[in-house]
Amino acid sequence: MFEHFFQCPYCWEEISMILDPIDGRQVYVEDCEVCCNPIEVDYRFESAEIVDFEAREIGQ
Questions:
Q1: Is residue 59 over pLDDT 80?
Q2: Has residue 60 got a pLDDT over 80?
Q3: Nearest 5°: phi and psi at 56?
Q4: 39 half-sphere exposure, CB direction, 13 A CA radius
Q5: Closest to 17 measured CA to CA, from 2, 34, 29
Q6: How far apart are CA 40 and CA 38, in angstroms?
Q7: What is the rounded CA–CA span in Å between residue 36 and residue 2?
Q8: Are the CB atoms for 24 and 47 separated by under 8 Å?
Q9: Residue 4: exposed, middle, or buried by beta-carbon count in 10 A (0-12, 13-18, 19+)?
Q10: Which of 41, 42, 1, 45 is nearest to 19 (CA)?
């Protein structure tokens, strides 16, 4: 597992999520641990390295 830190697109607090480092793209929704708003998380790993990450508001 891989811990990734980023800013919530709603409250701008730094939060972290545990990502599964399997090769390929993953997209899912998880609530912010600070403000509880739903965040769409979109990331991609290649050879156990994160190569793309985006956290956005739902509907954006």
A1: no
A2: no
A3: -135, 160
A4: 25
A5: 2
A6: 7
A7: 22
A8: no
A9: middle
A10: 1
Q: Are strands 14-19 and 24-31 parallel, antiparallel or unpaired?
A: unpaired
Single-letter amino acid, residue 24: G
The residue assigned the tokens 């545990």 is 18
Question: What's the one-letter identity of residue 21?
Answer: P
CB contact burial 16-42 (16+ within 10 A = b; e otherwise): ebebebeeeeeeeeeebeeeeeebbbe
* Range list of β-strands (E), the chain: 2-7, 14-19, 24-31, 38-46, 49-57
26 band by pLDDT with thresholds 50, 70 and 90: very high
Residue pair 39/29 in contact (Cβ under 8 Å)? The answer is yes
